[in-house]
Amino acid sequence: MTYDETNETNPYWLTDFFCRKDFSARAVVFFSSNFTSNRNITKGIIRTLVKLEESGVAIKRDHFVQANKYLNVVGGAMILDMLTTEEVEEMVGKHLAKSFDLIKSSNLINTYVYKRGV
User: What letter does residue 35 receive in the DSSP assignment?
Assistant: First the structure.
């Protein structure tokens, strides 16, 4: 679920991020939701968290919890399986920026062009 075939240099970079800290707590929280079985949703959430971390935010278990809660609520009004990875990134990024009062990070998420291995 965290394999990123678009990154030729290191397709396991999302896996590396996910497993780096507090793996067991993250795994229980994150993969207990049915919608994380969709690769676009999983990659979108984790990419957002990587961007937040790279902008200086210390990622905690609650970031995963809040992302899942938000998508659970949104999933009641729209079909999440139709979203692209980029759409999930944008939605989750805006929600987390608002939830954790990360206005500067929100601007980074919206304008940051993600380039791995460059």
Answer: G
